[in-house]
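User: I'm new to structure prediction. If I give you an amino acid sequence, what do you actually give back? Let's try with this one:
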Amino acid sequence: MLSGQPIVILKENVERNRGKEAQRSNIAAAKAIAGAVKSTLGPRGMDKMLVSSSGDIVITNDGATILSEIAVQHPGAKMVIEVAHTQDEEVGDGTTTAVVLVGALMEQAESMLE
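Assistant: Good question. You get back a string of structure tokens that encode the predicted 3D arrangement of the chain. For your 114 residues, that looks like this:
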């Protein structure tokens, strides 16, 4: 610290939000991640086709696989993906359900903030 002020070093092109704007951004990121895997749930769950930048194609309806293939930069989105990884490590199943639950909780939080 320099004269009582913290020094924050950010990468180039990094946006820093505070307050309501940061809350909305985190909620939107969590809902986007949940939306990406929500359609894979249940007996009528759909497969997702993921294409990497090198052209590799993966077709799956496994939430853990989908989330491991997604490249995210947003800290809120990374936390949701970490929830799925923790669920997978601890239980071995339920990653998609955990992410969809987080998304539903964020929807409720969004309405409460408004």
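You can read the tokens as a compact description of the fold. Here is one thing that stands out. The longest helix spans residues 19-38.
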